[in-house]
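This protein record is not my work; I was only asked to verify it. The record follows directly below this note.
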Amino acid sequence: MAVLPKLLINTFREYKYWSDINTSQIPQGALELYINSGMFDLHISRIRSMYSQRMSALKDIAKNQSSPAVRWHIPSKAGFYAGLEILNMSRQKYIVDALMKKDIILPNIESSYLLEHIDDRFLRLSIAKIEPKVMEPGIGLIISEIEKEANKYSSSIHL
């Protein structure tokens, strides 16, 4: 199902028609089998559980590694991303670059938001590819880098 403006309905139908004609029946049959056998629901359940455990681990780490330089924004239930707000400065790009040199890769926030809604004090952390056992040292490095940059920033203001 698609919700479209009336102006686009006929164009959409035509593209959809041609797309459907060229879809192989073998992958469609395999997908039907995967869904109807319950394997898809099982997969979704496992993924949700895994992400819930990772987000829960992140919440625990955030409580233990608090800092006056940051404010956490962690979903109350499961999720894919958590936010880390850098307080009292706008130096997100410097921090992301410094962390990349330490093999900590944070997603580019500019590709996730409209330009007028980008906040340069916000880091977006994905839990998708990180195991809970390596979260704690990684979060420690992130907070340490933020605090280091905050110290540089605050000392440059007072000069």
About this structure: The helical segments are 6-21, 25-36, 39-64, 92-100, 132-157. The two ends are 60 Å apart (CA to CA). The longest helix spans residues 39-64.
